[in-house]
Amino acid sequence: KQKIKQIGEKNETEKEILEEIEETKNIGLTMAVAGINPYNFTGTKLDKLYKELKQIGDGE
């Protein structure tokens, strides 16, 4: 039962991350259109998300 719960939590987290990515992409797109580089936002939610995604991508 514990494992099922963990998988459920993992899926929940992934869903949240995907929603966050979608939101972030929209923010990034909006900023790009406005001529702002979204990657200059060190220390913000965007920056934190980017680092987390990079870690996931690097298979950490």
Structural write-up:
This protein is mainly α and 60 residues long. The protein is built from two helices and no strands. It has one domain (2-57). It has helices spanning 2-33, 45-57. The longest helix has 32 residues, at 2-33. The model has no long low-confidence stretch (mean pLDDT 72).
Rg is 14 Å
Biggest β-sheet strands, sense, barrel: none
Mean pLDDT: 72
Written as H for each helix and E for each strand, in order along the chain, the element string is HH
Structural class: mainly alpha
Unreliable runs, pLDDT <50, ≥5 residues?
none
How many strands? 0
Distance between the termini: 26 Å
Number of helices in the DSSP assignment? 2
How many domains make up the coordinates?
A: 1
Instruction: Please bin the fraction of helical residues.
Output: over 70%
Write down the overall geometry: elongated
Strand content: under 5%
